[in-house]
Amino acid sequence: MLKKWIFYSSLTLIIAYLSSGFKPFDSQNHNWFQSANQKEMSYSFPSQEEQDYANLNVPFTGKFFIGFKEAVAFKESQGKYHKVNSLGYMGKYQFGLETLQTIGIHDSVAFLNNPKLQEKAFVALLSKNKWELKDEIEKFSGKIISGVKITESGILAAAHLGGAGSVKRFLNSNGAKKCKDDYGTSVKSYMRDFGGYETSGIIADNDAKVK
What we know:
Strand order of the largest sheet: 1-2
Shape: extended
Distance between the termini: 96 Å
Radius of gyration: 30 Å
Oligomer: single chain
Largest sheet: 2 strands, antiparallel
Strand content: under 5%
């Protein structure tokens, strides 16, 4: 009888001891468990409401070169490699046939079906435009023309839209000549929208070709 009493008493003590280790956690008394209500900790997405996404454009890629090329691509074609517009401009960056030929591409069908070739073509054209506009980049970078701060990436984006000649006319006229493409988009808007990106890695080369 004594042995049973000792056994049950010991079992009761063990259960009581173990139970004490599972008390409800009071987060209010443990500051280390809480985070300050900072802006960085507030998230709006994902959301199940379609209207919450109405003003989103492209994924955040910063001001690096990848951000530049993806922003231009989204503006040109919404990033679609196989898109051909009503004027015949093709691909993710909307190249015309004549422009493709200047960088060594003569097969438009192969170009349209080759994403890697399109990416190389974009860089090659940037190199050609940077060489042709090197004087304007040096002369006008940092200045304000027609309300737009001029940067190298803005100049290169505008040249992609309307050609180097349009950019020169706009800059050298101090913004008086309103150069636009066939859809009415101005080189000024491209200089504004694509300014401040990192494009210093683009090498100026008048003979740039896609290899």
